[in-house]
Design a protein that fits this description.
The complex is a heterodimer of chains A (299) and B (280). Chain A has 14 helices and no strands. Chain A has 299 residues and is an all-alpha fold. The longest helix of chain A has 29 residues. Chain B has a domain of 159 residues: Rossmann fold (3-Layer(aba) Sandwich), CATH 3.40.50.300. Chain B has nine helices and twelve strands. Chain B is globular. The chains are: A mainly alpha (299), B alpha/beta (280). At the A-B interface, helix 1, helix 7, helix 8, helix 10 and helix 11 of A face helix 3 of B.
């Protein structure tokens, strides 16, 4: 059954759709830059480390978004301070940060479960549980999302230029390192939002999946962002709907929203990746180039 | 040095060293408006270092670089007085950026805020794409273009702000002969039409010969410069290298050959180890 009755009347659904929509929107915009800059792993690392913050928030009884956000920002600052220039070195620094963050999360989640008997904390922090998000989070989520979008819009051109070639950007007077730092901050904002939605571990799926699909379809950066947002928001709201319906498939036990969101994103990607690129882009490169060849050949 | 009429670039006795090793020593030359100059030397002879020194992104141990009439320094405004095409690795085919977007980023890519549609930008981008003969693939993704096509787009990117001086770092490396000849022809046209001074580094000068007015030849950290025919000569290059060099012209091509027996080169190395450079 699709569209089980009461979907739009349910308060948890409202909250889930707002938080999920904001997270998917911001992830779509920022994810395109993440994939272009080759920083998927950094995004994943920030999310993993942020899980320690989410776990701490449960322990302290504070706004979980604040926990995710605080820890992600600290991790972003740490990764910037490490200032690893080589790709291999950057991978190592990122990997070590992931280990440290998840280790801390393991400790805090253990305390959550043993001291405060919030048995669901581990699943909520790591894999999300959207129907239990308290609506009090909405204002902070909107503020964080707005900040991420504003910085992205402000640094849109320098970010594109640095993604294309840091050397070209530098010649034009772009402050490459400052741009990178601001971008990392925006990434921290973004993964903390998606950690609220699909959980810290799965937040990379929301960040990378729609963007990677969009990059196969789009010719222009603006177009890529629009497609990534559409896929992300579509998958998130679709996932919420399916999860709501799933209460009626296996009565009494709904399936997790995150499962549906991530599955939808995955299915989109597989479909797009299976179709040859020239069909999406309507490339006439081959024929155009052949035309030039003939012209110069006869001249 | 006195400022001369039409002088676009003056490099004065520039020296650069990295951790004690001298890369450039007392390198000096001047270029005037519209000149096409090859910067020739073997790998590791300091070509990129010299270009970076001119750009202002390499600190000098001694000497000065003057662009146009103003005294150089680390000015951000160099971005609009110098166009630069760095040595590129091929670009990611999945970058959702068209050739014309790359040129537009050359126009105002350093500005903050979203790029609102602008007729001035649009016209200038169209003009530059046409000037490098790239209009027919302007809508293609940059990563899907061939090496020569990408190079032409990067030249348009570098020139869209109308600089007077264009620096290119090994733009012909990794290109087949035909694409290399096309790039040289495009650059020659641009230097004539817009009176742009072109300084282009290469390890092989032959593709440049049809267009090259002047040459700066680097070896041993030293440079000789002048009109092509004055520099590419047996006596001049032999003095620069520190051992006998033959310059041979065959069917309009130039071959620079270490004509000495290997023993002579060894003897030269023993005499002045720091002054013997490999032939490109």
């Amino acid at each position: 059954m699709i569209f089980a009755s009461g979907f739009f009347a349910s308060d948890p659904v409202h909250t889930a759709m707002i938080i999920g929509g904001v997270a998917a929107l911001v992830s779509g915009v920022v994810g395109v830059f993440t994939v272009m800059r080759g920083q998927s792993f950094a995004g994943h690392a920030l999310a993993d480390v942020s899980s320690a913050g989410g776990s701490a928030a449960f322990l302290l009884g504070i706004n979980p978004l604040l926990g995710f956000l605080g820890m992600a920002v600290i991790a972003a600052g740490g990764m910037e301070l490490a200032d690893a220039r080589l790709v291999r070195e950057r991978d190592l620094v990122t990997g070590i940060a992931v280990g440290a963050g998840l280790g801390l999360a393991a400790l805090l989640l253990y305390f959550d479960v043993t001291f405060t008997s919030t048995t669901g904390a581990a699943v909520t922090v790591m894999f999300g549980s959207m129907f239990s998000i308290p609506p009090t989070i909405i204002p902070l989520a909107l503020a964080v999302g707005l900040a991420a979008l504003t910085i992205s819009a402000l640094f849109y051109r320098p970010l594109l230029l640095v993604s294309l070639s840091p050397e070209l950007a530098e010649v034009q007077g772009v402050r490459v390192r400052l741009t990178g730092l601001l971008y990392l901050l925006v990434l921290a904002f973004t993964v903390s939002l998606s950690a609220m939605t699909v959980g810290a571990i799965l937040s990379t799926a929301l960040l990378i999946g729609p963007a990677a699909t969009a990059l196969r379809l789009a010719k222009r950066p603006g177009q890529a962002i629009a497609i990534a947002v559409l896929i992300g928001v579509g998958a998130t709201w679709g996932g919420i709907l399916l999860a709501y319906d799933s209460f009626y498939w296996t009565p009494g036990h709904g399936w997790p929203v995150s499962f549906f969101i991530v599955s939808l994103i995955f299915i989109f990607y597989v479909i797009v990746a299976a179709v040859p690129e020239r069909i999406w882009l309507r490339k006439h490169g081959v024929s155009v180039r052949a035309g030039v060849d003939t012209r110069t050949g006869s001249a | 040095m006195m400022h001369q009429e039409g002088e676009v670039l003056a490099v004065n006795q520039v020296s650069v060293s990295f951790s004690g090793r001298t890369v450039l020593q007392d390198v000096g030359f001047t270029l005037r408006a519209g000149e096409f100059c090859g910067l020739i030397g073997a790998n590791g002879s300091g070509k990129t270092t010299l270009l970076r020194a001119i750009l202002g992104s390499q600190a000098l141990d001694a000497g000065s670089v003057r662009i146009g009439c103003s005294d150089g320094g680390r000015l951000p405004s160099r971005g609009s007085s110098i166009g630069y095409v760095p040595q590129t690795k091929s670009l990611d085919p999945y970058m959702p950026v068209r050739a014309r977007d790359v040129v537009a980023l050359g126009f105002d890519g350093n500005r903050l805020g979203l790029p609102l549609p602008s007729r001035a930008r649009r016209n200038r981008v169209d003009e530059m794409l046409k000037a490098v003969n790239a209009s027919h693939f302007a809508q293609q993704r940059i990563g899907n273009l061939s090496g020569g096509e990408q190079q032409r787009v990067l030249i348009a990117h570098a020139l869209v702000r109308r600089p007077r001086l264009l620096l290119l770092d090994e733009p012909l490396a990794n290109l087949d002969m035909r694409s290399a000849a096309e790039i040289v022809a495009v650059l020659h046209q641009l230097s004539v039409k817009y009176l742009i001074t072109v300084l282009l580094s290469a390890h092989d000068m032959n593709p440049l010969l049809p267009a090259m007015d002047r040459v700066v030849y680097l070896a041993n950290g030293h440079a000789v410069s002048g009109k092509t025919d004055e520099v590419i000569r047996t006596d001049v290059l032999s003095r620069l290298y520190g051992y006998h060099i033959d310059v041979i012209r065959v069917h309009g091509r130039v071959l620079v050959i270490a004509a000495a027996a290997p023993g002579d080169i060894l003897a030269a190395i023993e005499k002045h180890p720091a002054h013997v450079a490999p032939v490109p």
